[in-house]
Amino acid sequence: MSVHYESRYAIGPREAKALDTGALREQFLIAAIFTNDEIRVVYTHYDRYIAGGSKPVSKALTLETIDPLKADYFLERRELGIINVGGAGKVTVDGQVYELGFKEALYVGKGNKEVSFSSDDPAVPAKFYFNSAPAHHAYPTKKVTKAEAEIVELGSPETANHRVINKLLVNSVVETCQLQMGMTELKKGSVWNTMPAHTHDRRMEVYFYFEVPEGQAACHFLGQPDETRHIWMHNEQAVISPPWSIHAGAGTSNYTFIWGMAGENLDYDDMDKRTITELR
Q1: Residue 200 annotated in ligand binding
Q2: In angstroms, rounded to a whole number, what is the distance separating the alpha carbons of residues 73 and 115?
Q3: pLDDT, tens digit, for every residue of 187-216?
Q4: Which amino acid positions bind Zn(2+), per UniProt (predicted)?
């Protein structure tokens, strides 16, 4: 079996306050996303969300079901979002082949029985980062390139948060049940993401950090606005953000991150904004 999974139970803000550094990382950090010729999956009980990665090198990899789903196949009751952060590759969905280049995305709807991943060149393997959420309706599979994304530019060099938000798998671009995914690219000289910070009690989120230069790191901030914590992140690692938590970060260099979320609604701007001065 090429799919390796772990399950993470949800905890509340009261429990999170008592965690030391090691326990905080064990609860929220997804340290290993990509392993050669394996699919790695973390199933979190926050909105039954799944985050994982597939790195096919010497063979194609099939996304098989995992025990927590109690399903005959992975997408029996789920939808899937994929963004390639490696070399060129292919995703085959029930016999239909989709070519995905670097930073291109694919939405796969509920009911597709077989999803497999392959790389065009084993020397430069594809790295398919994916998120999945429960789905109540079958929407069509659709590829989305950066050119087709909804793009928003925010921040400024003066506040070190000049960034470009690429909304790839959102309801203004592709129909989904609840899953939304996109990619934020920080400009050179900028290090802060999602600042000012916010919460959205109606949705949870997962951040995947990549393009973090060798020898550099990103510090991810989480917790309630008046009781924040931090986790140091390295390249190609992800972090789970509960609905009660802020999700922001600062790097020792600029970087890129993929955000994925699911929950009560599809309104991207549904957030409870927090001013910088009220963070503790």
Answers
A1: yes
A2: 10
A3: 999 999 999 999 998 999 999 999 999 999
A4: 198, 200, 205, 247
